[in-house]
Prior knowledge:
Order of helices and strands: HEEH
Helix content: 55-70%
Pfam family, one: LapA_dom
Structural class: mainly alpha
Keywords: Cell membrane, Coiled coil, Membrane, Transmembrane, Transmembrane helix
Protein name: Lipopolysaccharide assembly protein A domain-containing protein
Mean pLDDT: 83
InterPro entries: LapA_dom
Amino acid sequence: MVRLLVIVVFLVVLITFALSNPDPQSLWVVSYGWQFSVGMLVLGVGAASFLLGGFVMFIGEIKQRSRARKAEQQVRALESQVLDLHQRIDRLTVATDPSRAPYEAPATTPVAP
């Protein structure tokens, strides 16, 4: 929600600046020149920066999701190892003392991927 508020404020400032500066100016880079409104130039630079920031955030999110998937796989592997170890302990306990009840795994809810 805070991100959306920051984005809206940023866009309102850019659009207000673009609307208050409609006069075309002569702009040039090296040997290329054109007539362009300063407000539209600022709006274009702001939009390009916004898209670049979104792309960088997307790359970071991909890395985070990959790390989360690996961690979930490791948790599943460790849970199966714990269950296997409890079953081994039960077999050894029942073999040495038949009056003891075997271990029952607690009911767990599956983790949504």
